Amino acid sequence: LEMHLTTVRGKPGGKVWKFKGVATVDGEMAAEAEFTAMMDLPKE
User: Fold this and answer.
1) Residue extents of the structural domains in the chain
2) Which of 5, 9, 10, 13 is deepest in the core (most CB within 10 A)?
3) Which long-range CB contacts under 8 A does 14-18 form with residues at least 24 apart?
């Protein structure tokens, strides 16, 4: 299983990021997905 992700949208220091990914098994695509994630790091 290999998973390859790319950043579709997001900027350094930003909280919301969008990703696109493809998973392959023996060179054949097994799954693909687009997802959005939010990071909220605690302030020090």
Assistant:
1) 2-38
2) 10
3) 15/39, 15/40
Integer Cα distance of 21 and 33 in angstroms: 5
**Residue 41 vs residue 29, higher pLDDT:** 29
Tell the residue number behind the tokens 């220091």, with chain if given: 13
pLDDT tens-place string over residues 13-39: 788 999 999 999 999 999 999 999 998
Q: What is the DSSP string of 16-39?
A: EEEEEEEEEETTEEEEEEEEEEE-
How open is the CA angle 42-18-14, to the nearest 5 degrees?
Answer: 35
